[in-house]
Design a protein that fits this description.
By secondary structure, this protein is of the alpha+beta class. Helices cover 45% and strands 13% of the residues. 23% of the residues are buried.
Length: 124
Amino acid sequence: MYEVDRNRFEELVSAAVSALPGAFRDRIANLEIIVEDWARSEDYGQMGIGPGSTLLGVYRGIPLPLRRGYNMALPDTIVIFQQPIQQLSGDAADLAERVNHVVRHEVAHYFGISDERLREIDAY
């Protein structure tokens, strides 16, 4: 387990977003990316998994390709869960890589890419 304070963890998340390819990063709009300690019970329900599972991040919103009449809407949200990511991390480099992976994964959901498709392209 490798721990950092919330400010440092948020810096890692910001760096991961900044490192996204420009073709994706420049198309992100009306999306908030935040950090929470742990997933909520409704996050497990949304994902169709039990509370004994580990969630590292979640996308709460309507994927970009499914949006119709999406004016004046509150931002969608990507939540990165700090505590479970830290529990899996062995050192600073491992933590940064895990944060990068989770951010990329959740941003893929924002763009409408499913878990199945991520597995197909070996990006899971």
